[in-house]
Amino acid sequence: LKGLDLPFVSPVGRLDKASEGLLLMSNDTRWASGLLDPASHVAKTYHVQIAAMPDEAMLERFRQGAVVDGELLTASSIALLRSGGRTAWLEIVLDEGRNRQIRRLLGAFDIEVLRLVRVAIGGLQLGELAKGKARHLTSEELAT
Q1: Label partner for 124 (CA 20 to 30 A): which of 20, 33, 84, 118?
Q2: 23 in a domain, yes or no?
Q3: pTM of this prediction exceeds 0.85
Q4: d(CA 29, CA 40)
């Protein structure tokens, strides 16, 4: 965040250290709370590379969810983006952020997650922003 001339900011939510992608920073706790409050159901969209070639039946099992450690893990939606070779990319949308939810859900089906990239939070998109880079949100983005 060097060179952005920012006041004190803190992360809005979290990404585990094995994940990458969109991480918002803010000093507006009310705005941040609105994004994080489970009651608000703000969608978080991830692109997930897996070490499997899922067919429609497997995708449907993912969509139904799995009970892990007594907790039902589900996603709002799961779609196949592309596949080839021995891997596939899924788009997974969550409306709540449980700890390592995607990794735990796919792990329940013995599916290895190779990469996990958060590409959107609500209407805020990662877009073409390079890894390790930051930018200010526009006034239009802040209003979403």
Answers
A1: 84
A2: yes
A3: yes
A4: 15
